[in-house]
Design goal:
The complex is a heterodimer of chains A (about 15) and B (about 260). With about 15 residues, chain A is mostly beta strands. Chain A contains no helices and 2 strands. Chain B is mainly β and about 260 residues long. Helix content of chain B is about 15%, strand content about 45%. Chain B is globular and about 55 Å long. At the A-B interface, strand 1 and strand 2 of A face strand 10 and strand 20 of B.
């Protein structure tokens, strides 16, 4: 099954 | 004092149309360099980034960097009051509570101004690494829009596979499945803007939600070309260059097998 990732997983907060 | 004048005011209408269904509220940051905006959709699955260089405006002045907290639906309502040929000027004070929009008809016979109330918006600013992507596809924006629209009828998830030969968009759903492959144009094929070009270091396959790709294609009227940037296991970038002024880029997190 495919799970939708959140965008924050890839880009860190700054 | 902030003041930005765009002769082609319809551009601003198109930009807001391209964002407002995905993002409800956003801070537009104004500085000497120009306007930028970064915002996530409500589900935090995608991110939209707008960049408008100061040089792309017919007049641009920004004495002090300011942030305009905008409700994009409300801004869209005000921009609907501008004619398609109107010149649009944005104005704000150094510590603004409102954004003033002035619309002038081409013959100067009609001049209107509106004030939009600004909001305090708490947002998280994400750092987007300046990445070299394994695949970059340049294709007609209308073609991309059509593929996304067609495949969304069949299923929810699109598998995008990029190889040297072409880009394959695949979908499957309850009624069946489908694939659309667009092949790299040969140098002799017609207009530059109608071409499909692929720069590839290694083939990439990723899964994406068609619902979000559909939101991104609202930017189609902004230009004839769209660029897709992909690398394994990272968000796709769907980039619409805006002629002479900047670009709007959408980042969408992939769906990954559990």
């Amino acid at each position: 099954r495919n799970k939708q990732r959140k965008i924050m997983v890839f880009f860190s907060s700054c | 004092m902030f003041e930005a004048r765009l002769t082609e005011g319809s551009l601003l209408k198109k930009i807001i149309e391209a964002i407002k269904d995905l993002v409800q509220e956003a801070n537009v940051d104004c500085s000497e360099e120009g306007l930028t905006m970064q915002a996530m959709d409500a589900s935090h699955v995608s991110l939209c980034s707008l960049n408008m260089r100061h040089g792309g405006f017919d007049h641009y002045r920004c004495d002090r960097s300011i942030s305009l907290g905008l409700n994009l639906a409300n801004l869209g309502k005000i921009l609907k009051c501008a004619g398609n040929d109107d010149v649009v000027t944005l104005k704000a004070e150094d510590e603004p509570d409102t954004l003033t929009l002035m619309f002038e008809s081409p013959n100067q016979e009609r001049i209107s101004d509106f004030e939009l109330k600004l909001m305090d918006i708490e947002t998280e600013h994400l750092g987007i690494p300046n990445e070299e992507y394994k695949c970059t596809i340049s294709m007609p924006s209308g073609e991309f829009q059509r593929i996304v629209r067609d495949l969304a009828v069949i299923g929810e998830t699109c598998i995008i596979t990029c190889t040297k030969e072409g880009v394959k968009f695949s979908v499957s759903g309850d009624l069946g499945n489908g694939n659309v492959t667009v092949r790299q144009s040969s140098a002799a094929d017609g207009d530059e803007k109608d071409q499909v070009k692929i720069q590839m270091e290694e083939p990439v396959t990723l899964n994406f939600a068609l619902r979000y790709l559909g939101f991104f294609t609202k930017a189609t009227p902004l230009g004839s070309t769209v660029k897709l940037h992909m690398s394994p296991d990272v968000p796709i970038v769907v980039e619409y260059p805006i002629d002479g002024i900047g670009s709007i880029s959408y980042f969408l997190a992939p769906k990954i097998d559990e």
